[in-house]
Amino acid sequence: MHPLLERATIFCEGLDHPECIAVHPDGSIWAGGESGQIYRISSDGSSVVEMVNTGGFILGIAISPGAEWMAICDLGKKCVWRLDLESLRLSMLSQGAEGHTFQIPNYPVFDAAGDLYVSESGAFRQISGKILKIHRDGRGQIWHNGPFNFANGMAMGPSGSELYVVCSWLPGVERVSISSDESSGGRSVYCTLPKTVPDGLAFDQMGNLYISCYAPNAIYRVSVDGTAVELIEDWEAHTLSNPTNIAFGGPDFDQLFSANLGRWHITKIDLGSKGLPLASHKPKPTSNES
After folding, report:
1. Where does the pLDDT of residue 288 fall: very low under 50, low under 70, confident under 90, or very high at 90 and above?
2. What's the CATH fold of domain 3-281?
3. Has this prediction a pTM greater than 0.90?
4. 253 Cβ partners below 8 Å, 6+ apart?
């Protein structure tokens, strides 16, 4: 058994092959299912409730600054939904941008101002991925035309000036700088992970990047100097089974939660390293803040 696997447990069960996961500031955990389900999981894992259903196939989700609403990437409906977290009202946010209609809207990331970046994976086995940006006013644009080799999970870098993008068939992670005018800047390969299919990303407060892999059943950690090590692996695929998206949470924000597309549960790993707070975990900017 991999040493860290002893600190990994099944946090909750009864989900329909969850691809995505997000941690709300109140400690609850949200996830999606392959038949359009959006689940809310209590902070202790004792309750799993289906809150809404889009009728599609849920990929990535993200909670907005201020935690008022959730962005939902839907493969089945080829769109991004907006879910008001108080009223549970579901509405269409975007079907793409001028010059591009979503084909595989895969993963959303908010910046501190509330603008939303969405990875568009592109056609399967073709290098045609993009990154779209949905502005606070609802306007969509092609932010980076790529092409990325199946753009998948993403994470805002610790400085907020770089966006990290999984390219599943690279396989690895690319880094795109965000210019002062908020346009896309330089692009580079951050790391490669041969013989893997990377999917999700999360940073800790020390700047280490965690990469969950659909295959093998593993999570890697890339240190700030670019060194990649296998953090945890489950060859039996019982505790980790096609881990896709990951998110930090828990009372001390030092537990790593993983969705498992291959099974019906969420995994909790007592990592002991504190996660980097996302835009949803920080105070919402006031109207006179830039």
Report:
1. very low
2. Neuraminidase (2.120.10)
3. yes
4. 274, 275, 277
